[in-house]
Amino acid sequence: MSADRQASLFARVARKFGLRHALRTAVAVVATQIVVTALNLPQGYWAVITTVIVMQANLGGSMRAAWTRLAGTAVGAVFGTAAASLGGQSLPASGLAVFATLAACAAIPRLRESSRVAGITAIIIILGGHPDIPAAVLGFDRFLEIAVGIVTALVVSLAVLPSRASRALSHGLARLFEDVASLFAVVVEGRIREDYPERHVFALKERILRTLGRCRELRLEADAESRDQGDSALRAMLLFRGERLFEHVLGMDHVAEDWRGQGLHRHLPEEMADLERSGAEVLTGLAAHLRGSAPLPDVAALETAVAKAREKLALMRRDRAPAAYDLSEVMHFFSFMHGMLACAADARETVARIRSMETV
After folding, report:
1. Mean pLDDT (the chain, rounded)
2. Gap between the Cα atoms of 102 and 118, Å rounded
């Protein structure tokens, strides 16, 4: 086996089993233990636990988790310290601390994700108190331990085999456009052949939904990595266009699933096939561009296919071809064609928007 094939095989195994993330987390844990030992923190294991929690698959995820953990700890420490100072380890103090902490997090939108961590921190300060240690000292120690774990996790995320959410998002969006192209082609070809491929369509839709969910998370993580407004706008646009394209194809699929009529689509099989082929090629070309392996696709063939399809539709209307079919057949046909043309329009618009945004 050649060196390149061995490297490729190792990369696939590493991705499958998450070896990069596992290695980075292990390094971060060891580094945190060294730091807490050097600082002689009283309960340094909280820093180590925080490191494991904060370490995510990419830097953006780690930064989001770090913010949530740090903000929650700070809020919980403040209210836990205040409640412990007033009521010690009593039940009223615990109830007051949790109530005040969660209410404060709920009242501030940016702190809502931190509410669970904040509540836990407040309870730990109260229940873990000691008569000889002031509550304020305990609260500060807890915050310091968490901060040490967070800082160590972020440093390791940056220095050891760094992984960027923005890159993962590009690959996720590429997979999204590829799968939408496949679904588009399968649905159109099934309609032309009058054979709806239910299992294939179901599998593609499930995969696209999972990819969309992951891309939405990655977009937030990528925005946490970089505050560049241009990059953020490009990511938002690509995700929006991917969702719109999927919605168009879903509409076509709903029509194709219920459409058993034999008729109007037989008037333009070549035009439908050309539109399907050129549309899928543009979407696949977009995926290759997002992976960095190809330039933006040429949309000339797609524009030609759209023009031919519109011309054929106009001719069918002039010849009153729809009048020979019942209303259900006409509605299904034009709904399906509207979906195909909408997919083509969004694909062309996506290419144009990327070109304009990348040249700014």
Report:
1. 87
2. 7
The structure tokens 């082609």 sit at: 185
Which CATH entry fits the domain spanning 165-358: 3.20.20.140, 3.20.20.70, 3.40.50.2300, 1.20.58.220?
1.20.58.220
* Whole-number Å distance between alpha carbons of 154 and 168: 18
Residues listed for the chain: 360
Give which of 196, 201, 241, 217 is closest to 343, Cα–Cα. Answer: 241
The domain spans of the chain are 3-159, 165-358
Cα–Cα separations (whole angstroms), residue 235 to 176, 192, 222: 13, 35, 9
The model carries a pTM of 0.79
Can you name the residues that pair with 133 across neighbouring β-strands? 130
The number of helix segments (H) and strand segments (E) in the chain equals 13, 0
Question: What residues contact 164, with CB distance under 8 A and at least 6 apart?
Answer: 58, 59, 60, 222, 225
Asked whether the predicted pLDDT for residue 309 surpasses 90, the reply is yes
Higher-pLDDT residue of 177, 166 = 177
pLDDT at residue 200 is higher than 90: yes
**How many CB atoms sit inside 10 A of residue 5's CB?**
9
| Residue 136 pLDDT class (50, 70, 90 cuts) | confident
DSSP state of 195: -
pLDDT at 12 over 70: no
